[in-house]
Amino acid sequence: MAILKIARMGHPILRQVAEPVADPTDPSVGLLIRDMVETMQDAGGTGLAAPQVHAPVRVVTYFVRGPRLEEGEDEVPLTVLINPVLTPLDDQIAYDWEGCLSVPGLTGLAPRHRRIRLQALTAEGETIDRAVQGFHARVLQHECDHLDGILYPQRMDDLSLLLFQEEMRFGAPERAVELMEKNNDQ
Ligand code: NI
User: Fold this and answer.
1) Is 111 inside any structural domain?
2) Choosing from 71, 124, 143, 181, which is the catalytic residue?
3) Residues having C-beta closer than 5 Å to ion ligand 1
4) Which domain covers residue 165, as residue numbers?
5) Which region holds residue 109: left if phi is over 0, alpha if psi is between -120 and 50, else beta?
6) Is 0.85 topped by the overall pTM?
């Protein structure tokens, strides 16, 4: 077990497209997963993608709980995804705040698909195929973007809504409030 170094925005590993995992049950993959979980928990993150810890393979760890869950959404326990593939289920987009362990101190309002289909393998090599929505769908899109070398600021359509988290003490920008209110009209 080890806490791994987290790459920050600007490091070339974060721009790389990660390779698929050939065998999820390979012991080296199990070792990486254990270290990723330990690193994610140590850093206080909700999710971590392998490229963030300098491993250019398609592995994601995450969980979803707490106040950002939308009504009717269930908590998601600690989950490992191997070779995940996301497909939007419709055209609906929602805006919400995101942060990233590779972009420390900042937060930004990013648009994401509201409903997606998730296909992936578990660490045991079993198939996952399910529909996901809301904050869970957002976390997945953020983490899977890392596997394609994309960070959340690249998904933003208004960079005036990229802020230092500490400055949120002055309140969210009016434009952000408007965009998030639109989420509720859908
Ligand atoms: Ni991230």
Assistant:
1) yes
2) 143
3) 100
4) 12-185
5) beta
6) yes
